[in-house]
C-alpha cells in the first residue's frame, strides 16, 4: 500500500527507466514476478516509451486498461523474454510483471482477449 506521505510522479517518462530496470528482476527471479507501486495506466505508457524509443519489443492489451502482454523484451543482450503486466484500474497503486515461462497462460490469454472484445470488456474498459 502506498504511504500517503510519499509522493509519486505520474509522468510515464519518469517511470520508463524504472520499468527498464525491473525487466532484469522479473527475468532472473524464480517465480518471475516483480511489482512497481504505480498504476498500470502510467506503467503501460512507460512501456510504450521503451518500445518506441529503445526498441524494447512490443506490447498489446489483453484486457483494456488492466492486463497487457509485453513481448520480445531484451534483457542485457542475453535473452528476449515476454511478460504479462497487470494492475487495477480503480486504485491505480500497483502493477505486477510476470515473466512468461514454460507455463504461458494460453487459456487465460485467450479468455482475456475474448472478454476484452465483448460488451463486458468494453464496459470494463470504460469503468474507473
Number of structurally distinct domains: 1
Alpha plus pi helix count = 4
Distance between the termini: 19 Å
Helix content class = 40-55%
Number of strands: 5
**Strand line-up across the major sheet:** 1-5-4-3-2
Average pLDDT metric: 86
Shape descriptor reads globular
Structural class: alpha+beta
Stretches where pLDDT is under 50 for at least 5 consecutive residues are: none
Major beta sheet summary = 5 strands, antiparallel
Strand percentage lies at 25-35%
Could you spell the SSE succession in H and E letters? Answer: HEHEEEEHH
Radius of gyration: 14 Å
List the helices and strands and how they pair.
Blueprint: H1 12-28, E1 33-36, H2 40-54, E2 58-63, E3 67-75, E4 79-87, E5 95-99, H3 106-117, H4 119-126
Antiparallel strand pairs: 1-5, 2-3, 3-4, 4-5
Helix pairs in contact: 1-2, 3-4
Q: Can you walk me through this structure?
A:
- A 5-stranded antiparallel β-sheet has the order 1-5-4-3-2.
- It is 41% helix and 26% strand.
- The chain is α+β, with helices and mostly antiparallel strands.
- Helix 1 (12-28) packs across helix 2 (40-54) and helix 3 (106-117) crosses helix 4 (119-126).
